[in-house]
Amino acid sequence: MSIEKINAARAELHATSAYGTLAAFFDEGSFCETDAFAASGDGFAEAAAGYGTVEGLPVYAFAQNTDVCGGALSKAQTAKLKKLYTLAIKTGAPVVGFYDSVGGRLGQGTELLAGCGEVLKLASKASGMIPQISVVLGTCLGTNALNASSADFVIMTKDAQLSLDVTGTGASAEENAERGAVCAVEESREDAIAKARSLLTYLPSNNLSPAPEAENAEPSPEGSCIVSQIADGGSKLKLSDACGKGARIRLARLGGAVVGVVRTTGGRMDCAAAAKAAKFVRFCDAFSLPVLTVVDCEGFETLGSATKLASAYAEATTVKLSVVVGKAIGSAYIALAGTGANADAVYALPEAVISPVNIEAAAFIMAPEQMKVPVSEQKAVAERLADEKLSAFNAARNGYVDGIAELPELRAALISALDMMAGKRVPTVAKKHSTV
User: Most buried residue among 87, 125, 385, 401 by CB atoms closer than 10 A?
Assistant: First the structure.
């Protein structure tokens, strides 16, 4: 084929949807394509792939091309993705996938299934080694959905579909977000791409590299939320708010350094909240992102959820800081802030309450005579006794809290602790993986 025909084919291909997506995603002029002329049947492969930079950070990415056979999965497309993942693992750079496909080329049968399985195997191999982000911009069903959902973070547009069921049942973005399968639902394609770019600026390139630091590390309170008041101004990135409302997870910066934040919202934590927090803690630990836990929790709704979350914290060897801002009762204190969590430093606000049992039960145990009041008055008496006998000061006197700080002082204390613990190293016993 002459160079004129090659250039004409390239120009025609670069006008398709996948290239528009990748051009919007990568820094201008940084995209370098791999396997540009890979063929699938009589045409080009149904996805574009390559590497470039996002805010100066190296990234690999692919985008399914709806203008070429509807972006259908094929042997050629899976071969392209396998090569991309192999390069990403070798060089230690994140992988971002943009999904929008009508399905798969069923005529290729088991060869297609084998190719999909090999892509999934490489994605699993890369898990915990390099960050992975999936951005679902349209239809993503069946095997395609399995590949997309294997990423660390999944972003969807509000009109996209994601489901193992090829009929698309229960595949809306809102339903997936409520189930915890999606970390963010965006209004448009442009918003979803922008979210992926923003997320990458908080993540290290791989499990041996530090996360990128920000130069502007000044506080700028954004609201009443304690995380907003102690984090660097404008640095809080919300994730997975639609599910498990008993816990909020965030990526933020403290003194320019990236931290993963788990904030409990009071009351008892349900299963969805615990599962969300446990997955996030394991991600942060895999990439050595410090975990800041803001505790206001009276326990867990189920034993299973408590066990999974406690295990995630106990196994994590990254820097772990905890701040008790409300109540830390029984299992919640043990799992999130106490010795069970292996917290490196525990702080508390002066008004915090730490108790082995709920404060009403504690009041009956500590001062049964004072609780001989009408039922309507028992809660107030219990609260008063908690302030006197279950305060953060009592816990600090017994060595269970390292420091008590007013909110204006808390940010400086946490930044100092992060700086001192940046070199933390914890040897662990060799094993394959946890079974909890």
Answer: 401
Whole-prediction pTM value? 0.91
pLDDT 10s digits, 104-152: 776 777 888 888 899 999 999 999 999 999 999 999 998 899 999 999 9
In angstroms, rounded to a whole number, what is the distance separating the alpha carbons of residues 7 and 10?
5
DSSP class of residue 212 equals P
Kindly state whether residue 210 falls inside one of the protein's structural domains: no
Please write the tens of the pLDDT for every residue from 328-366.
Answer: 888 888 899 876 667 999 999 998 888 766 656 555 555
Same domain, 52 and 174: yes
| Cα-trace Rg, the chain | 25
Domain boundary among the residues 155, 184, 200 is at 200
What is the spatial distance between Cα 51 and Cα 9, in angstroms, rounded to a whole number? 21
Residue 26's pLDDT band (cuts 50, 70, 90): very high
35 contacts 48 by C-beta, under 8 angstroms: no
Same domain, 285 and 397: yes
CA–CA gap between residue 172 and residue 114 (Å, rounded): 28
Taking a C-beta distance cutoff of 8 angstroms, is the pair 50, 61 a contact? yes
Instruction: Work out how many domains the chain is built from and give that number.
Output: 2
Residue where a domain terminates, one of 160, 184, 200: 200
Look up the domain containing 127 and give its range: 3-200
